[in-house]
Each structure stands twice: as structure tokens, then as C-alpha cells.
Amino acid sequence: MRLRLVVASIVLLAACGDGSASPADRYGNEAEASASNDAPVAAAVDPAEPTTITVPAEPTTTTTSTTSTSSPTSTSSPTTTGGRTCVRVADFDEPDWFIVNDGVMGGRSDARGGLDAGVLVWTGTIVTQGGGFSSIRGAVDGELAGAGELVMRIRTDGRSYELLADDAASTRVTHYNPIPATGGSWEIVAVPLTGMEPRIFGSLVTADPFEPDRADQIGVILADGLDGDFSFEIDWIDACA
User: Fold this and answer.
1) pTM to 2 decimals?
2) Which residues, 6+ apart, have CB-to-CB distance to 131 below 8 Å?
3) I need a surface site. Which of 73, 95, 133, 209 has the fewest CB within 10 A?
């Protein structure tokens, strides 16, 4: 099994004041990379910038404790999480996720990703001057149908991360909800797929609610307005009814 992460920089197509806003959030579906074995980045991504990192995966088996300092592991779907029926969306045995940073628009944030015993490790440095964001994303195809929340086993540094999600009904809108992690140790957290905030280029907009049945991409973004290093690890992600 191999992990392929593409580090991409996105060109912003509009500026604040004419239907667009801060670069540190939504960068437009039309300008984003999309996870695909054949075409891991979209045409709007600067072709000179992306690089590919391949890391051997080490699939293992799962534990389901709510907080643990032991080594994390993974399982296949369907499964149960906290008594709920869930579908395993990602366990990172054979992922195809990609990183989007703020490089082409003048930002200097940096990030990298890799596998460590079946865990996706996403680390980097946020530089707010000229940019100030990093995100990691993966494609979904039907796995969120009927789901009301995503349940994730993660370990973070305590910074303010958000779940992001796109659906086929959205042209330029991405939907966001905070990830309620304390940080420091392994946690199982639930993020609702209802009441998500719709934004375009960082601006809150009026839009139809996120449709899990038509979801085509999920991810995690850090755009908290703070300079400095970050670290976010994901053991698995479940979509739960």
C-alpha cells in the first residue's frame, strides 16, 4: 500500500470586495485540487509547484477507546463507533489525500504529510503574512450517504481546526464546522454535518445546506490567524447516521 500526497498551491480568482474575501479559508471549487488516481490536482493549480510524496503504509487493526496514549490503529467498514452504525470513510491503509497551501498567492505556509503505522500525519508551519492557511483533503463517493456526523480519531496540538466538506450541488461553496478537539492526546470527536457554515473565499454566504448524500470531498483546514508550527494526526474517519 502507498500513500500519495500532493502539495498544491492555489491561485485566488477574486479579491475581497467583489464577491470574494480572505484567502485563508475557501479557495473555490474551480481552483481546488481533487483527489484522483489519474489527476491528483485540478488544472487551476500551478503545474510547477506540486510535488508528490510516496510513503509505504503499514495497515494494522483497530482500538476504539475514547482517549488513549497508545499507538493508534485502523479497521475496515462498516463498523460501530460509540454504539452507532457507521461507515469507515478513511483508515489510511490506501489513501489518496492531498495538501493545499497558500504558496502561489504569495503565502509562505508550508505543510507535509505521510503515514506512520497507518496514521495520516499532517504537519507544517503557518505564516499569516500573505496567506495563512493549510488544508488536507480527500475525495469521497457515496460514503457519507445518510450520515449526520463524522466521527474521527485524532491527535492535535490544540489549535483551532475545522472540518471542510463539498457536495456536488455546490459550485463554489465549501461548508465548515469546528473540530472540537482538546489536543495533546488521542481523542474521538464528532463533527456534525448539519448546521455547517457555507463560505466562498472565506466570506460567509447564503447557500443551501450541505448534502451528505452528494458529498464529493472532505478535509481539515487550519486558518486560525496564528503564525507557527502545527501538527494534526488522523487514525480514522467514520460517517455515522
Assistant:
1) 0.71
2) 23, 24, 101, 102, 103, 105, 106, 107, 108, 109
3) 209
